Amino acid sequence: MALRMKKLEKGIMIALLVIGGLLMMVPFIWMIGSSFKPENEFTVIPPSLFPNHPTFNNYRDLFVKMDFLIYLKNTLIIVLCSFVGLFLNAMAGYAFAKFDFPGKNKFFYVILATMMIPGQVTMIPTYLIINQMHLVNTMAGIVLPGLVGAFAIFLFRQFMTTIPMDLLEAARLDGAGELRIFFQLMVPIVKPVFAVQGILTFIGAWNSFLWPLIIANDEKLYTLSVGLSLLKGQYGTAFGLQMAGAAFMVVPIIIIFIFFQKHIIEGYTISGIK
Amino acid sequence: MFIAPAVLLLTLFSIIPIIIALVISFTDMDLVGLADYSNIRGVGFSNYIDIFKDPIFLKSMYNTLIYVVIGVPLVVMASMGVALLLNYGSGWLFKSFRVIYYMPSITNIVAVAVVWGYLYNGCYGLFNYVLSWFGLPAQQWLQDPVLAKLSLILLAFWKSIGLNMIIFLAALQGIPRSYYEAAEIDGATGWKKLRYITVPLLGFATFFVTITTLIGWIQFFEEPLVMTKGGPLNATMSMALFIYNNGFQLSKFGYAASGSFVLFIIIIIVTLIQFAVKKKEVEY
């Protein structure tokens, strides 16, 4: 009896999970299906989830008629730069975890405090600073402000604090330089943090929208999402093109996420948010 | 040496901007001032006084309140519920659905706007078609002032379950199995285990999720920006969008900066209240 109750309970749980999950997926299915529809199928009533006459034209048009290749290149440059930022974060975390210097704790608290500040407060002054540095409408202006982040520094520091000091001392006795210790000893040990921060960094850079929109006036500097918003504004009725653009932004990130999702959950467990 | 680049960048782009924001919130800085700094004049508290007389700002505060009151409980409860369901088993089914629930969190906001804009479309959208199955009339999802707010909340709800669910899931995996085994020996049923072990032990995760969700909804911004631009009739205008519009569309930098400090102060107050309430709770 108790066993049957348990089976029934599990059945209900799974049913709830599946129904909820399918509802969550509706926009994705709708997006993928529509991205293969020819334009004349968008005004058909009732609307269909999948195209009757599938076509690749929408995707082709993104690259032929629109400048999506340039947008893709810019986005990838931002992604690469953000990985440099990831290393800067790791180095800062390392310094906070393993070195003593005057004002260390105060510095650390100030960095943590920057997490609390709403983006809207710093947005205007940051724009003014970038403007003063004559970096408006340059790639550097797009990339620099977001290069380092308090959360990543915090995560690296937390994890590196647990690494025994003896290990570092031993390496120093063997005559390894500080840079070598960092790259050959620390980086391999903190791989799990690199994994989770790496994927979060990638997602963030790939999706970056607002800041490039503010800083880039020149179409040559547009990112994919800025390009897509342009498409949404100018080709408001070209649903197929819009849907293909959206799918082109979303699908790669989902694929990457599926590969690395185990690390994200581990990462949250490591970071001690529980 | 290790710390210099990061600290330099953070100082330049996070700490100095706060000071600048505070300074320009007391000035009349606009596009003219941007071109030539000698045109900037100090105006004392008049930006702060004007902003509370601005009907659009007051409207945006009211809208933000609605977003918070409906959005926060919805997201916290749903993400906890999903995490509990996902934690129920460990087979492939549960693992794949973990990915599915997380997927909306990582999608690009512009792509989301494109897809949802089409879903909400008054003529060809899926939502109105689904309504027609039940004989319900078609709705103007984004054009009706009341409905537009709810439409944005639904979208943001869909997008924010994933991340919070992961935090709950990480917390659930940290609960020792022995607690449940002990309870089972005492004859506790599923519901009682949930009520007396799981939910209390999720206390910290719930606190963390509540506070981050609350701060997130107070700064509600991207969804109205890309979906409605604050319309119709400012019905979806949030405080953050108001600041953005004044700063980057109207180039009223000083006025926008004072708005951003009002927002900042509200966040600090709400966070402090949360911590105060948390302290009163019994620790397990």
UniProtKB/TrEMBL annotation, chain A:
InterPro entries: MetI-like (IPR000515), MetI-like_sf (IPR035906). Residues 71-260 form the ABC transmembrane type-1 domain. It is a multi-pass membrane protein. Pfam families: BPD_transp_1. The chain crosses the membrane at residues 12-32, 76-96, 108-130, 136-156, 193-215, 235-260. CDD domains: TM_PBP2. Keywords: Cell membrane, Membrane, Transmembrane, Transmembrane helix, Transport. It is found in: Cell membrane. Its main location: membrane. Gene3D superfamilies: MetI-like (1.10.3720.10). PANTHER family: ABC TRANSPORTER PERMEASE PROTEIN MG189-RELATED (PTHR43744:SF12), ABC TRANSPORTER PERMEASE PROTEIN MG189-RELATED-RELATED (PTHR43744). Belongs to the binding-protein-dependent transport system permease family. This is Carbohydrate ABC transporter permease. It comes from Paenibacillus tianjinensis.
TrEMBL record, chain B:
Keywords: Cell membrane, Membrane, Transmembrane, Transmembrane helix, Transport. The chain crosses the membrane at residues 7-27, 65-87, 99-119, 150-175, 196-218, 253-277. It comes from the Bacteria. SUPFAM superfamilies: MetI-like (SSF161098). Residues 61-274 form the ABC transmembrane type-1 domain. Its main location: membrane. It is a multi-pass membrane protein. CDD domains: TM_PBP2. It is found in: Cell membrane. Gene3D superfamilies: MetI-like (1.10.3720.10). Belongs to the binding-protein-dependent transport system permease family. This is Sugar ABC transporter permease.
